[in-house]
Prior knowledge:
The protein has helices at about 65, 85-100, 155-165, 170-180; strands at about 5-15, 20-25, 30-40, 40-50, 55-60, 75, 75-80, 105-115, 120-130, 150-155. It is α+β, with helices and mostly antiparallel strands. The strands form two sheets. Strands 4, 5, 6, 7, 8, 9 and 10 form a seven-stranded mixed β-sheet that branches. The protein has a three-stranded antiparallel β-sheet with strand order 1-2-3, with no helix packed on it. It starts with 5 loop residues before the first strand and ends in a 5-residue tail after the last helix. About 25% of the residues are buried.
Amino acid sequence: MTGSDAILSTRTLFAGWMTLLLARVRLSGTEHDRAFLLHPSGAQVLAYDPARGVAMVGRQTRLGVLHLGLPPLIEGLGGAEDEGEAPVATVLREAMEEAGLRLRDPVKVGHAWMTPSTSTERVHLFLAEYDAADRVAPGGGAAGEVEAIDLTEMPLADLWAASQAGVFDAKLLLLVQALRIRRPDLF
C-alpha cells in the first residue's frame, strides 16, 4: 500500500438492496478494475441462557452457501441495520423478529469487516443473556423479508464442538469464542 492508492472512478453495475460497483483503482502505482459491493452494515448477537447452558441459534438459506451445494450454516441472531439505527438497537430488534426473544443488556464484543477486499459490510458483535421467560413471541423473521428461520436452542458445549467443524458463519464463530473466553464455566 502506498499513499497514492485511490479509487479513480466507479460505475454502478447493479443497484438494489446492495449495490455492485466496478471501480477503477490505483494500487501500488498501477491501475486495475475491481468489483465491490456497497453492503449495509449490521449486527449479530449470541443470545444465551446461562442457567440452562443453551444458546438460541438459527439456520436459514444463504445464497453463497446454497450455490456451493452446502446445507444452511448455524448463525446467531441478527441482520442489517435500519437507516440511523444503533447496532445495539439492531440486535434487540432482530432477536425479537427472528426468535421472539427479549434480550437483557447486550454487551458489545467488537465489530468485524466481513470481506473488506470486496465489500463495505461491517458487523457489530454482541453477547446477551436471556431465559425461558424472555421468549415472548414466536419469531421466525420479519414479515415481508422472506426469512424462513429454523430456530433451535443448542447446548453451549455442543455449540463449541460445532464451532470446530466449520458449520458456522464467521460472526457466530467469533461470538462463541468470545463467550467461551469470558464465561468458560458455561462450556
